[in-house]
């Protein structure tokens, strides 16, 4: 069941991307994990709910909306599947239980999903030396250009079946003026939130791409945050550049 919230004071209808209600990728090119070895599946009770990115052998980056059942209440029994393009693959994929969930202290979905970022600490380290496990590259500065891609798992909008294989779609960002016009009722923070569209009309987001990385080459530019139900409206991602210091702080606090 997908939760739909009428945000009356925003005057628009948005699909809330909490955990297993998050958005997934569809219509993309099927790829093997070696093309996106930093991508992981975030799961609850062995069900894929969101994507994430490996930022160290013990930490995964994702969206806060993926791991919060409600405000300040974290899902239990979260695990991460790494090292496979097939989320049913128990032979080659590595399962890691999550020991600690760190979400941004100022994240609130009622506050326009600003600060939609979280770090998952794993009980056991990902063996990066193994094939198809690789750290995502954090940006030194804001990425230039507007052509990006994202990879994840998705539900076919026609058959409603979950694709168990990793997919990649190309996306392009849009100017803040266009984003502002589409979300006129929302106070989007354009210093940390940016809008994007799939580059092909046959591709898009459907009901677990939340948390998936927005990539500029092999460098992460953002994290998919939320999407409108209207296909004519862009989706929104959280720009990670402004959170590099926060990430380092949070990892330092949970080093042991």
Explain what this protein looks like in three dimensions.
The chain has 256 residues and is mostly beta strands. It folds into 2 domains: 39-135 and 242-253, Trypsin-like serine proteases (Thrombin, subunit H), CATH 2.40.10; 147-241, Trypsin-like serine proteases (Thrombin, subunit H, Beta Barrel), CATH 2.40.10. The chain has helices at residues 64-67, 176-182, 244-253; strands at 4-7, 12-15, 24-26, 29-30, 39-44, 47-56, 59-62, 68-70, 73-74, 78-82, 94-103, 118-122, 147-152, 167-173, 193-198, 204-206, 213-216, 219-228, 235-239. The chain has a 6-stranded antiparallel beta barrel with strand order 13-14-15-19-18-17. A hairpin with a 2-residue loop joins β6 and β7 (59-62). The termini are far apart. The model is unreliable at 1-23 (pLDDT under 50). This is Peptidase S1 domain-containing protein.
Provide a compact summary of the structure.
It comes from Aphidius gifuensis. This protein is mostly beta strands. Helices cover about 10% and strands about 40% of the residues.
Write the layout of secondary structure elements.
Layout: E1 4-7, E2 12-15, E3 24-26, E4 29-30, E5 39-44, E6 47-56, E7 59-62, H1 64-67, E8 68-70, E9 73-74, E10 78-82, E11 94-103, E12 118-122, E13 147-152, E14 167-173, H2 176-182, E15 193-198, E16 204-206, E17 213-216, E18 219-228, E19 235-239, H3 244-253
Antiparallel strand pairs: 1-2, 2-18, 3-16, 4-14, 5-6, 5-10, 6-7, 7-12, 8-9, 10-11, 11-12, 13-14, 13-17, 14-15, 15-19, 17-18, 18-19
Question: Which features characterize this protein?
Answer:
Thrombin, subunit H, mainly beta, 8% helix, six-stranded antiparallel beta barrel, 3 helices, globular, six-stranded antiparallel barrel, 256 residues
